[in-house]
């Protein structure tokens, strides 16, 4: 079976603080969870019932092998995964007492450029994945490094060649960039080549000085859909000329890691279930489904471990009606 969605970018380990509310220097223990936004989305899609492939680069180390094995076990296509002598990335994640997280540093305080994911090679991206896919999901983190930036460019060219729609999650993480001043221009250029854009409220303010998805879609004419997420305040959307807001579900939160990725997977999964002509009339239901997938992910720790199945999302939505 050919994967319908390609997710390209970083795969890594999130080391999440076991002491919520404490600063980095005071944390004494961490728990490791597999993560990386595009890898999270690929796993979440497969669990929801949409076939996916992951394209990225891991280290020739035990961490890298375990991540590839995990994707393989879940059922994600791993033919696009490359390896490099640099180590697999580890990110240290602090948690607030309410479960919100901040990405603060890398394992052993390494420089951000010293990890395998920065070495994703453009010429090794499998063309055949794009020949049969409907969507490419990408983020902006790998724009920060020359080799992986070239790989993003190659993926965009293949998407144009084979009429694959591009879904971009801004997913701004300053800690990944040695020079943060170059990021806004690069991100804006990438947005112009996307069909669907997801951003958090603070990212929308930063890049567009508005959180109104309709205004953003008007400014970037190529966009067919804009999603602006705001955590417990819900999500505003502009989809196929239709605008609306979906409130967040009231749910007991344990850990917000990966919730936005599950939300995006829920959205793309729904796009795969709908003809483009149906997206307008079902826009509210599509975003509500995405919100449910994101909400359920916050009820357990970790990103991939916590992701719901399609049956769990359906049952939750029925219960909420």
Task: Describe the structure concisely for a colleague.
The protein contains 11 helices and 13 strands.
What does this structure look like?
The chain has a single domain (5-10, 36-89, 121-320), classed as Ribokinase (UDP-N-acetylmuramoyl-L-alanine:D-glutamate ligase), CATH 3.40.1190.20. It is an alpha/beta fold and 321 residues long. It has eleven helices and 13 strands. Helices cover 36% and strands 23% of the residues. The strands form two sheets. It has a nine-stranded mixed beta sheet with strand order 5-4-1-8-9-10-11-12-13, sandwiched between helices. It has helices spanning 37-48, 62-74, 127-132, 146-161, 183-191, 201-208, 213-219, 259-273, 276-279, 283-297, 310-320, and strands spanning 5-8, 12-17, 30-35, 52-59, 77-84, 90-95, 101-106, 135-138, 165-169, 196-200, 225-229, 235-239, 242-246. Helix 10 crosses helix 11 (310-320). The two termini are 35 Å apart. Helix 4 links the parallel strand 8 and strand 9 (165-169).
């Amino acid at each position: 079976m050919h994967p319908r969605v390609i997710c390209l970018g970083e795969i890594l380990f999130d080391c999440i603080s076991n002491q919520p509310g404490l600063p980095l220097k005071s944390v004494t223990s961490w728990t490791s969870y597999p993560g990386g936004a595009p890898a999270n989305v690929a796993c979440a899609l497969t669990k929801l019932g949409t076939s996916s492939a992951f394209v990225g680069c891991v280290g020739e180390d035990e961490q890298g092998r375990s991540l590839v094995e995990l994707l393989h076990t879940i059922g994600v296509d791993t033919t696009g995964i490359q390896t490099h002598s640099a180590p697999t990335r580890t990110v240290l994640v602090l948690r607030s007492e309410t479960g919100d997280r901040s990405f603060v540093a890398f394992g052993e305080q390494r420089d951000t450029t010293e990890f395998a994911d920065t070495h994703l090679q453009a010429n090794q991206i499998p063309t055949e994945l794009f020949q049969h896919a409907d969507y490419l999901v990408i983020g902006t983190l790998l724009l920060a490094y020359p080799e992986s930036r070239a790989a993003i460019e190659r993926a965009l060219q293949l998407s144009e060649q084979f009429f694959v729609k591009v879904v971009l999650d801004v997913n701004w993480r300053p800690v990944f960039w040695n020079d943060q001043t170059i990021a806004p221009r690069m991100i804006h250029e990438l947005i112009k080549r996307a069909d669907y854009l997801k951003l958090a409220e603070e990212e929308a303010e930063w890049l567009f000085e508005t959180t109104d998805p309709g205004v953003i879609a008007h400014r970037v004419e190529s966009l067919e859909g804009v999603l602006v997420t705001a955590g417990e305040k819900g999500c505003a959307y502009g989809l196929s000329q239709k605008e609306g807001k979906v409130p967040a579900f009231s749910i007991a939160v344990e850990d917000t890691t990966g919730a936005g990725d599950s939300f995006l997977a829920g959205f793309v999964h729904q796009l795969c279930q709908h003809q483009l002509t149906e997206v307008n009339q079902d826009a509210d239901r599509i975003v509500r489904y995405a919100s449910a997938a994101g909400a359920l992910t916050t009820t357990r720790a970790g990103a991939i471990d916590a992701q719901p199945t399609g049956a769990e999302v359906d049952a939750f939505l029925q219960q909420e009606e």
